[in-house]
Design a protein that fits this description.
By secondary structure, this protein is an alpha+beta fold. 29% of the residues lie in helices and 29% in strands. Strand 17 and strand 18 form a beta hairpin. Helix 3 packs across helix 5 and helix 11 runs parallel beside helix 12. It is globular.
Length: 520
Amino acid sequence: MPNPRSDLPESAPSIASVGARGFEVDLAGGSERIDTLIAGRRVWSVTASPESARVEWPPTLAAHVRGPADVELRGADSSVLWAGRIEFAPGTHGDGRFVDARGRELVVNKWGRPARAVEGDDAFADRLMTSLDAVIAVLEELGMQPFITGGTLLGAIRSGDFLPHDDDADVGYVSKADGRVDVVLESLELERALAAAGFDVRPHSRSHLQVLFSDAEGRVDHYVDLFPGFTIGDRYCQPIAVRTPARGLAILPRTTVPLAGADMPSVADPETWLARTYGPAWRTPDPSFRFETPPSTRRRFENWFGVYNTNREFWEDLHADPDAEEAVDARLLELLRDRWSSATGVIDLGSGTGALATALAGPRLDVVAVDFSRPGLTRANETADAAGVRVRTVECNLADGRALLGAAAPLLRQRRDWHVVLGHVLEGLVPETRAQVLRVVRHLIDGGGEAVATIGTELPPDYRHEDPRTWHLPVGLLQREAADAGLRIETLSTGSWHSLGARRREATVVMTAEQRGRNR
């Protein structure tokens, strides 16, 4: 590896070492922003501090950058601190660019995920602007008063354009609802109206909606986020992240601000709004900035409106990776074929890329694969087609109780003795989601079916909260949760399985309804 630059001013930070996992920086003063460029393009920025002088690369670089990459580390003043070649994924072959499977250039967004961005992509910026206009027009037709907010407003006030690293657009509106329950009902009405207008709407909570825009191949290209605003007590709230004193805050009447050559609706006093949202230094561009929602604000909004997006990006990124193959658990497959030899209907909840669903499918067996990962469901359809079998795929977010009941109702109306399989799914759910899944499972198997689940039962040494594959669920805890849902549990086997390069303990359990026929 090349040595750190020696011709920089003494006050500049210097890079002590660089490798496939990250780099170390010697800071001359306080915190310093470091920009990472790959093949001459800025793809990621991070603020290093004396407490975090060891910086790890975002995992998405290893997932997307194949072969040796030409990398530069630059300071906030654009001075080159280090330049050389890095293999983020040693042993792979490629051109060393940060691109998706179709060769489109990516950046690491504020959530640490791969994303398109307007920087250097005029066509993408035009599509984002067109979509933003379309969504605002629908809200205005519904009698709402939408305005750009978040990073979209920040870019407009700073430069009259989108932020260079933006991959979405943000729209707020002042809710006409009276109280939190009415905010939920209003959000449901808005979701239905947008869907009726032909938009692809994904609820992230019962207040936060996301409107998705896909390319000609059906893959999501960009999105527009919708946030309601309302006052409770002396606070103005805009889920998912803003809860600020209402005093001194002017939202209405709307004004206009220039954005990408057009006049867009804005809050009455955008400078005060941005200071409340991003802090007093909001005018200074900082691509490494990450908005941190205060824990008290997060707790309130999540308790009021739920959260439906937990781990979705993780699974969608994994399922979209063509190199990530999902192996069928041979022992589980053999067990299910033996137990369900006369079954006519199986529901695979949390089906992923559909490998198990495809293996189970047959001419006399109706198999339904349910997941919230669109890339996973796309691959499930492709896998089933290649195998010449029929698998019905259903997009459903298990965390959204309304969506879960909506997916279950048509299956229940078939009056079939459904069996349900959950292959390493339950341990990857938060307790609230797991509770409602178990209740729905109880209804699905009420006529005489059963549910078989495999679960990781111990915390692995490489546990990472951001990776749900490393989560665990003790059998005793599952038994208590299942009993609350009216289910009996029997442990069929215990053992280990190979996960993330290590052997981990697991259990296979069968669940049956405490009292059969309650829903018949």
